[in-house]
Every structure is written in C-alpha cells, then in structure tokens.
Amino acid sequence: MSMDVLQEKIRSKKNPTVAGLDPKLDYIPQYLKDEAFAKYGKTLKGAAEAYRLFCRGLIDALYEVVPAVKPQSAYFEVLGSEGIAALEDVVAYAKEKDLYVIMDAKRGDIGSTCEAYAQAYLGGISIDGETTLSPFDCDCLTVNGYLGTDGIRPFTELCRQNDKAIFLLVKTSNPSSMELQDLIAGGRLVHTAMADLAVRLTDKEQLVGKSGWSAIGAVVGATHPEDLKNLREKYPNIFFLVPGYGAQGGGAKDVAPAFDANGRGAIVNASRSILCAWQKQHAPEHDYAKAAAAEAVRMRDEIVGEIGTIK
How far, in Å, CA of 91 to CA of 51, rounded? Predict the structure, then answer.
C-alpha cells in the first residue's frame, strides 16, 4: 500500500516531514519573476512560469532532505489553466526526484463527480477506450469526507487498484474547526466519528498495508496536541498528516504525540516556514532554495530530537 511507501521513504531519510508547496508571487525571488515575465509578460502564464521555476528550484534543494512534497492545488488554480499546467509540471518533476507527492486539494463530492476527482488525482481517464492517461499521478490526495461514505469510496477504490492513499480531514488545524468537528453526535465527537469511518472502510475494503498502516490516513492539526495524543492512542493503524507546524504556531513538542513508540505513523507539514525561509533569514534571493533546505533540516532535527529515532 502507498502508506508503506511513504513510511519507508521517511525511514530511509530519517525525516518525518513534508514540504508544502504553496507558491505566491510574494514568496518568489525577483530574479525568477523577472525571468518569467521576460518570457510571457505580467500575465497569468508569466505568473505560472514563476511558480514553476520557484517550485523546481525548491525541489532540487529539498529532494535529498525530505521524503515528500505537498503541492496545494488552490495556489495554482488561482492562475487558471496556466496554473494547472504548472502544477502538472511540478508534480511530474517531484516524481522524477523520487519524492512522494501528496496533493492537497481536499476534494469531496458524490457519485460520478467524486469518481472524476478520484480519476484526476489517483487514477486516469480512458481516451476513446484505448489509452488511459493520468493527469496528475499523485501518490496521495487530501479528501473532505464529511459527505459520508459516498464521498470517500471512489477514492478508496482507486487506492486499492492503483496502490494510492488518501488523507481524510479529521481534526483540522484552523481555530474554528471546533465549531463542527468538536460537536458531540451520537455520544462521540464528530471528528472521532470521521476517524471511525476511516477504520470501517479500511476493514471492509482491506486497505491495510504490510507495515500495518491503512491507505486511509487522517489530517490532524499540530495546533491540537491533546487531540493528536488521544487520536494516536485510539487509532494505532491510521497514518497522520499533521499541518500547523511552523507559521501556524505548532512546534516539535506539539507534533510529538502524533508518532508511535517507534517514531512512525505521521508526517508533519511545513509550508511558509520553508518557502519563505530566505526572506526570514534575510538571505540573498539567489539562495532561496539553499535557505529552504536549511530550514527543512532544522525542522527535521527539531522533530527527530523530540520523538527519537525512527525505527
């Protein structure tokens, strides 16, 4: 299963972190923007080219440090079709560098619409019944499962068929998550009901890999360390994607409860703190990728120092 692949990449690099690729023009060094705008002008295509150059440079600097990257589709979608083309390029380039790719798109719907989302990110589309092409070919996708089983099964079917994985939104890192996710329904918290659903679908569809992790993971924010602790204890076979580290306020002590006794079972995301490290460090703009790698190393060392060796 795909989570086995992710855990092995984490173990081999001794790094349980993922670099979020959330590009904005404000984050990009001027020399890259100048290069892009010289080719395509100050247009959507020019902005998309700047995104592409920026992310490729980051990947070149990060692929020996981190096991995975997490492109956030919204930042590319804002540029329309040109942004989507840049996103396809970034995903393909990350795969060339043997990085595990988690597409952060938080898709969720029902019926044929949900099937189309699943095909776009985890499967492929048949062209005139002859050739099947994969638009993104990601390893994993974030999914909003709050539409219920109908909104999850098309994704899990492709997880099984194509050795992919998903991360369901369970307890998100944003402050207002408690407005719905912490409500009591049927004698349990809503977010634990979602985790229970992940367990039921895992068992029903036989989605446990050789390492014991389900292909259905959970997004659980670093800004809720007590919830992380409780969920890790209650759901030992669910892999966690942990946002909220760094710019959102979470630290190594906050994310430590996400891991089991062997330092396994979670991957921690940081985006702005890595992408904007060159600005924070007042580094020369041509050193933006070097600064990002240094921040990724610092983050790795801080977290591993807290959780211990990844066995």
Answer: 12
Rg (CA), the chain: 19
Question: How far is the C-alpha of 68 from the C-alpha of 65, rounded, in Å?
Answer: 9
- pLDDT score recorded for residue 301: 96
In contact, 103 and 136? CB cutoff 8 Å: yes
- Cα–Cα distance between 288 and 186 in angstroms, integer? 50
**Three-state secondary-structure class, residue 258:** helix
C-alpha torsion sign, points 212, 110, 140, 184: negative
d(Cα 8, Cα 130) in Å, to the nearest integer?
Answer: 35
Question: Within the chain, where are the H helices?
Answer: 2-13, 30-40, 44-62, 73-77, 80-96, 111-122, 153-162, 178-181, 190-205, 225-234, 252-255, 272-275, 277-280, 288-307
pTM above threshold 0.85: yes
Predicted confidence at residue 248, as pLDDT, reads: 66
pLDDT tens, 75-122?
Answer: 999 999 999 999 999 999 999 999 999 999 999 999 899 999 999 999
Examine the residue annotation and report whether 9 is marked as an active-site residue of this protein: no
- State how far the alpha carbon of 39 is from the alpha carbons of 28, 35, 290, in Å: 16, 7, 25
Q: For strands 17-21 and 68-71, give the pairing.
A: parallel
Q: Among the options 106, 229, 234, 280, which is catalytic?
A: 106
Nearest to 75 by CA among 96, 106, 118, 35: 106
Q: Identify the segments of the chain with pLDDT beneath 70.
A: 1, 247-249
What's the angle, vertex CA 164, arms to CA 80 and CA 16, rounded to 5? 90
- How many CB atoms within 10 Å of residue 132? 11
